[in-house]
C-alpha cells in the first residue's frame, strides 16, 4: 500500500465547472485538529494516539492542504444550492450500485449514457463528473475507481483508503463517519455533513491514518442517502 509520501502533487490549474457551487467572497474560516505528535505515556497509548490530523473549511481552497505531509484528511464543507438538497431529499429511488473505473473523461462519458442516467438523480451524476475532474486534477490524472451506492443496512467496518487518496461524499441526511483515533471502540466517531467532500490520504501498511466508514441506515429505517466513494488506482 502506498505511503503518504507518495501523494501526487496538487495542481493549481483547475477551472471550476459551470455546475459546481460558487464560493462566496469574504472571510474564510479554516478548522484544524492538532493531534499529539507522539505517544508520551502508556495512558496515551491506550487511547490509540496518534489521532488523524484533519483540516476543514467551507471554501474549496482547503484542498490545497492535501500538499501538507502532516495532514491525513481534508474536508471541503461546501455549501450547495437549495435545489440540490431538495432534489436529493425528495428522491426515493433504489438503483443498483454503480461501479466505474477509468480516467475522468471516460467516467464522464459513461455517466452521460441514458441507461445510467435513468437510475440516479441528475444533480448527483453531474456532481460525480465534477468531483471526478477535481480528483483527477489533484492526483495527477491517475485512473479512478468510483462507487456510487446506497449505504448498507448494517453497520460498516472502519477502514483506511486502499490506495494513495480516497474521496467520500454523502448525498442526503448525513455523510461518512470517521474516528478521532486508531481505536474505534474508544475513539470519538464524527459524521461528515451532507454534501461535504472528504479527501482521505492512504498510508503504508502498519502506519496510522484516518479510519472511516460508510454510514448505516438509522434504526427507524431512515436511509442516510447515496454515498460516493472515489479511489485512486495507481498500481
UniProtKB/TrEMBL annotation:
InterPro entries: DUF1826. It comes from Brytella acorum. Residues 1-24 are annotated as: Disordered. It comes from the Bacteria. Residues 1-18 have a biased composition (Polar residues). It holds the Pfam family DUF1826. This is DUF1826 domain-containing protein.
Amino acid at each position: 500500500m502506498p505511503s503518504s509520501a507518495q501523494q501526487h502533487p496538487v495542481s493549481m490549474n483547475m477551472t471550476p465547472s459551470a455546475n459546481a457551487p460558487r464560493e462566496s467572497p469574504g472571510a474564510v474560516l479554516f478548522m484544524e485538529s492538532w493531534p499529539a505528535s507522539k505517544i508520551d505515556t502508556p495512558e496515551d497509548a491506550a487511547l490509540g494516539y496518534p489521532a488523524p490530523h484533519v483540516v476543514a473549511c467551507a471554501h474549496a481552497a482547503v484542498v490545497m492542504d492535501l500538499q501538507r505531509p502532516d495532514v491525513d484528511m481534508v474536508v471541503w464543507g461546501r455549501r450547495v444550492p437549495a435545489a440540490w438538497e431538495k432534489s436529493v431529499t425528495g428522491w426515493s429511488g433504489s438503483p443498483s450500485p454503480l461501479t466505474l473505473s477509468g480516467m475522468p473523461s471516460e467516467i464522464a462519458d459513461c455517466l452521460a449514457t441514458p441507461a445510467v442516467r435513468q437510475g440516479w438523480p441528475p444533480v448527483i451524476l453531474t456532481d460525480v463528473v465534477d468531483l471526478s475532474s477535481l480528483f483527477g486534477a489533484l492526483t495527477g490524472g491517475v485512473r479512478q475507481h468510483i462507487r456510487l451506492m446506497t449505504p448498507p443496512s448494517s453497520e460498516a467496518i472502519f477502514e483506511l483508503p486502499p490506495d494513495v487518496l480516497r474521496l467520500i461524499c454523502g448525498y442526503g441526511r448525513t455523510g461518512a463517519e470517521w474516528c478521532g483515533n486508531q481505536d474505534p471502540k474508544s475513539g470519538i466517531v464524527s459524521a461528515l455533513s451532507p454534501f461535504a467532500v472528504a479527501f482521505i490520504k492512504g498510508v503504508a501498511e502498519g502506519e496510522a491514518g484516518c479510519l472511516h466508514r460508510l454510514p448505516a441506515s438509522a434504526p427507524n429505517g431512515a436511509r442516510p442517502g447515496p454515498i460516493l466513494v472515489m479511489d485512486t488506482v495507481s498500481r
